[in-house]
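Blackboard transcription, Thursday session:
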Amino acid sequence: MKASLGRRVATYALAALIVISTTLPLAWMLISGFKGRSEVLRTPFQFFPDVWLWQNYAAILQDPAFLQSMALTFAGALLFTLLSLVVNSIAAYAFARLDFRGKRFWWVYCITPMFIPGMAILLTSYVVVSNLGMLNTLAVLIIPGAASAVQMFFIRQFYLNTPLAIEEAALIDGAGRWRIFWSIFLPQSQGVFVVVGVGSFLAYWNAYVWPILTIQDPGLQQIMQYIAGFRSERGNEWGLLMAGSTLAALPTILLVLIFQRYIVNGVRLAGMK
Amino acid sequence: MTMSPQSTNRLATAASVALEPEGTAPASKRRRRVAGRLSTHVMDNRTAYVMIAPMVVLLGMFVWWPLLYSFYLSTFEISFYEEPVFVGLQFYGYVLEDPDFWHSIGIGATYVLYTVPAIMIIAFLVASFIRTVGRKVAGLLKTTVYVPTVVSAVITSVVFVFMYRADGGLINWLIGFVGLGPFAFLSDPELALPAISVPGIWLAFGITTLIMLAGMYDIPQSYYEAAQLEGANFFQRTWFITIPLMKNVLLYLVVTATIAGMQQFELPLIMTQGGPTNSTMTPNLFIFNQFKDPTPYATSFSLTAALILFFVLGGISMLIFRLIRSDKAIDA
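(Written on the board underneath:)
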């Protein structure tokens, strides 16, 4: 069917409208980062600055506390993602492919946390980690959330749909379960690992409430703590704050752009036959 | 961290729970039965226990134990001077009699009312539109609408606070074109909650769009072609084909958005601290603020409030999940 010119123009106009209104807050954040002190809250209002200044971005990049929290959060997020992938994928494989005594019980045990809201266990989790002496360590950010019912469920769903024949052949050849997991299942898991791995990375990077409870040491401050702290302490330096927010949001946005094919298709992954 | 992976990774849950196309159920079941047959004569107890052990231990330490501990604190009166005394459901009574608790429930429900219908309608329209455009434009739109999903609540809050400013704020400039404003959105008790709902919608509509779109792609194109031959317009096709065939996906999205909305508290925490005059004091923010009071009574009170919410919301979501996936949900 050939679309008429008018129809095509309308389609592009609508698409442009969706793109612009969706990205407006982010564009505004980016642009405001380029505005000097006198322009950022200027009346009468002006969308673009008269003079594009790099100073805010340069200044925030020279703030050691900002750099340190970016680097620490990045390292923490990588470790967290790695640990989650290991813990959740081996459990997912066991639940998808092995048969063992008490499987049903352990399945309910591992999957029910999906329905437990964080707030119901926030305070008591804090008590647990403080009794374990984990406060003000990176471990408190990495270990407690690594096991995730949602992610285990998602990976298991994928392993359930993996054809049986190769696994059977390997078993007959005498390969152990670990070997099969390592050499048959892991190489196929790229797509599903990207989707859940990006999920873990984002969860860690964007976390705010758990870090403000468990990290008081300024040397271990996470990036969202830094941004929120900046807003309450130096709330009037909007240009600087917008520049910092832009840089703090950048890794997550880049991640989406890099893995967009996997992620957008990830929504269909579980339905794949 | 205990909170974030469960809530942030909606993509994964949504995809796996809602999107298995209904038609594939028999096939996957058959495959599963074959898997079962293979493994019945090869019980791998030891390997399996080793494989699930890290997950079991971590969930035990950081989810199940804290949960049991929460229950304990909600049914025992703790004091610095005496042994804990079992008080049964006394704290539950206190919470349910507390007007501030009910006020926060009302705020949460209003927030849900502001956000969920808007998210559903915007996502449905955008998804319907993406379905009709060419591959390139569709790809661009899918990536674009997904971007807000990955921006943190902290950054979103900070940017929207900046945009809502009465002097020099972007939003007051925009509504100025239609002769409105300027408003001091976040310090007006009437406007603060609607103002907080906008970033709430912005954060959630993209992933909702993608999930709906995945549901729409599962509907055979031939249905629409047949309808078009019969002369059905967009609204008729939507009403008689799309919506009925996506019933489960839509229901799932409404339920998860409602539960997420009732639990929203990072946006008001950073944007308004629950004010002005408690007009944005959502249930979880109310509970979170109580945590700061270190007396045993306040601790037990706020934990009990959190547990009540947990029973109600968790109960609802489990029920709905059972309904949607009936035979597929828990059959390991």
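Lecturer's comment: Chain B touches chain A through 120 residues (CB under 8 Å).
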